[in-house]
Amino acid sequence: MTIKRWAEDLAQIVNPKNIKINESLKTYTMTKLGGNADVFVLPDTEDEAQAIVKYAHEHEVPLLMLGNGSNMVVRDGGVRGIVISFANLNEIRLDGEKIYAQSGALIKEVSRIAASNSLTGFEFACGIPGSVGGAMAMNAGAYGGEIKDIIVDCTVLTKEGERLVLSKEELELSYRKSIIAKNDYLVLSSNFQLEKGNQQEINEKVADLTFKRESKQPLEYPSAGSVFKRPPGYFAGKLIQDSGLQGKGVGGAEVSTKHAGFIINKGNATATDYIETIKMVQRVVKENFDVDLELEVKIVGEDLN
Known about the structure:
- The structure is a single chain.
- The protein is α+β, with helices and mostly antiparallel strands.
- The chain has three domains: about 5-85, Uridine Diphospho-n-acetylenolpyruvylglucosamine Reductase, domain 2 (2-Layer Sandwich), CATH 3.30.43; about 90-200, Uridine Diphospho-n-acetylenolpyruvylglucosamine Reductase, domain 3 (2-Layer Sandwich), CATH 3.30.465.10; about 220-300, Alpha-Beta Complex (Uridine Diphospho-n-acetylenolpyruvylglucosamine Reductase, domain 1).
- The chain has eight helices and 18 strands.
- The chain has helices spanning about 5-10, 45-60, 105-115, 130-135, 180-185, 200-215, 235-240, 270-290, and strands at about 20-25, 35-40, 65, 70-75, 80-85, 90-95, 100, 120, 140, 145, 150-155, 165, 185-195, 195, 225, 255, 260-265, 300.
- The longest helix has 19 residues, at about 270-290.
- It is globular and about 55 Å long.
- It starts with a helix and ends in a 5-residue tail after the last strand.
């Protein structure tokens, strides 16, 4: 089957305006890097999303889920097959002390709505740039809080397009891990349980966490956020800093001088620059401390020929 045929078939499922051929993925990633997708599609409903996943499975077309692009590096050669984005599935609903959020909703927007309604428990996510789907897949966390602390259940699609509702226990959430990532499920929506709190205390906590993030993270440059997982017994940023790697990199990519756990795009980086900088950091830290830095970011796609 050809790319044109995929697009024609998908136009029977979604609004043709939501299908783009040979679409640059730089626009959709926080690093502002990467090549093109053969076909890029934006479903407007969960039923459309399910139909696309079933189509890809039945016709053996490679399918990649792209969330908010905050934790992903797309190689310069781009992505073959279909790239699906749930950005239009972004509904957020409040029901007492519970919040329902679709996959494409920004996790920091869910946190903001919780805080503005005097609900506590979601403050940790006030600065996390990803989507609900991405946050679920990696059990996102910051400043002592994690998704697993507040999740009730999550509705997902299997690779075959089957819809499942997974309980907190079934999600198998641990440090930056979940059954979602393990089984390549796609998140449709999630339900969170919060508690009523003191509005002033919530506001103060959000303000404090926002200040910490803005003062310590290189938000002025494109990046994939925290590149490496925390090694047992260490902090990745401290190991990188103590290796003297801040300000160093390959091409237009550089280890941030503000936070060593971040690799930034100085403006003219390629995905290859970014990935080679990651490899350089891993190699030097291994040489200096005999610690293997495991990636928190996901690298996808193909290299340029």
